[in-house]
Each structure stands twice: as C-alpha cells, then as structure tokens.
Amino acid sequence: MSREMNGWLACPECDVLHQISALTAGTEACCCRCGAVLASCRPGHLERALALTMAAAMLFAVVNSHPLLGLDLGGRETSMTLLAGALELGQHGMWDVVILVFLTSFLFPLLHFLALLYVLIPLALDRCPPGAALWFRAAELFSPWGMIGVYALGVLVAVVKLSDLATVVPGVAVYALGGLLFCSTAAGHALDSADVWHRIEQVIERKKGSGGLPPGC
Ligand SMILES: [Zn+2]
C-alpha cells in the first residue's frame, strides 16, 4: 500500500519520513538514510508491465499444458507435464513434495498473474476494478511464493543427470519455461508498484467525488 500521507512519504525500508516534490520523467527519489527508492517517474511502465505479464500468463499456460521432458529409454518413450510429474511423486508417498510443487510452481504463480491482470488491465484503461486494492495486495503477496525459477533449475539438473541413462528430449514446455522466466522477471522490474497504488487511490478519489464508486473498490 502507498505510504504517502499528506504529502509525506515513509521509506519502506527504514520508515524515515520524506517530503517529495514532483518528479520529472526518468528520475527517482531515494531515501536519504538507506538509499531505498521511494518513488520514481517511469512513463509507460504500466503498459510495459501489462504486456510482459500477459506474455508470461500465456507462457505459463503453455508450460502447464505441454510436456516438459521426454525420455527415450531403450525404445520406450515417456513424456510428462509439470503437474503430472509432480503427481508421479505422490505414487511414491512424497505427498508433501507434491503439495509444495503444486503451490509454488502452479497455484501461487497462477494467482499472482490473475490478480495482476485483474488490476492492470482496467488501470491501463483508467478504470478501477472492484476490490482493486485487495487484488493488488494479493498479487504482491503471492509474488515471492512463486518459485518457477527453482523448478526450472530442478529441470536443468534432471536433464544433466538423466542424459547418461536415457535420451532426454526437451519438450515445448522447457522453451516456454525459459520465456516465462524472462517475461515474469522483466514484468516485475518494469512495474512501479508505488505508482500503481497511487493510480488506484486517484481513481477511487475521483469516483468518490462523482459518487460513482464501484462496490468493494
Ligand atoms: Zn530508508
């Protein structure tokens, strides 16, 4: 949530209060004590973050619907999707690992993308969806719990280890996984959260002023 109060902005890292004047395009304000970025002015960041998040969401769908790796062992070929591979571990009694993989590689990233798109698409059109503050807070909450990068590292280790035992054929999902990592990292870098909170507050204030505030916003 924005930490701006009556023109004063508290540093998110050390809580020192600052009074910030209007920023020009391409500049940012930093904390005088710890150097943390307090606010920045990056024109077009919302549109860039939205485009990258949409690309990441599409690649996420590909990753979860196509085979990740194919194995050719003495003429026997098998291939599995990400979730099917995790469920396979359940047959060996490792249900705690299954739940962990399901939450961090599927559910949390899915909720993160959905919540982010739910907020960013209407904001890019200068609208405020119902419950925007709640959904954006949820997107920020789920973000660090999505560990697709860790899963990608596990896939790389598996490819190297299995290459001695069988012929490993990378599936479509492996390439999509690389694209997903790039797009989601770039989207996180492009998005200016403080400005998104500011826009949400602006739209809410405007709706309140015109008496047309949507429910839950
Ligand atoms: Zn600070």
Structural topology:
Elements: E1 4-5, E2 8-10, E3 17-19, E4 28-30, E5 37-40, H1 45-65, E6 69-73, E7 76-80, H2 82-90, H3 95-124, H4 132-142, H5 148-162, E8 167-170, H6 172-190, H7 193-210
Antiparallel strand pairs: 1-2, 2-3, 4-5, 6-7, 6-8
Helix pairs in contact: 1-3, 1-6, 2-3, 3-4, 5-6
The structure holds zinc ion (ZN).
Structure description:
Helix content is 57%, strand content 13%. The two termini are 14 Å apart. It has 217 residues and is α+β, with helices and mostly antiparallel strands. It is elongated. Strands 1-2-3 form a 3-stranded antiparallel β-sheet, with no helix packed on it. It contains 7 helices and 8 strands; from the N terminus they run βββββαββααααβαα. The site of zinc ion has 8 residues, from loops.
Instruction: Note the gap between the termini.
Output: 14 Å
Ligands bound, unique: zinc ion
Strand content: 5-15%
Whole-number count of domains: 2
User: What is the structural class?
Assistant: alpha+beta
Strand order of the largest sheet: 1-2-3
The string of secondary-structure elements, in order, is EEEEEHEEHHHHEHH
Radius of gyration (CA) equals 21 Å
- Count up the helices: 7
Shape: elongated
- Uncertain stretches: 213-217
Q: Please give the share of residues in helix.
A: 55-70%
Total DSSP E strands:
8
Mean pLDDT across every amino acid position? 82
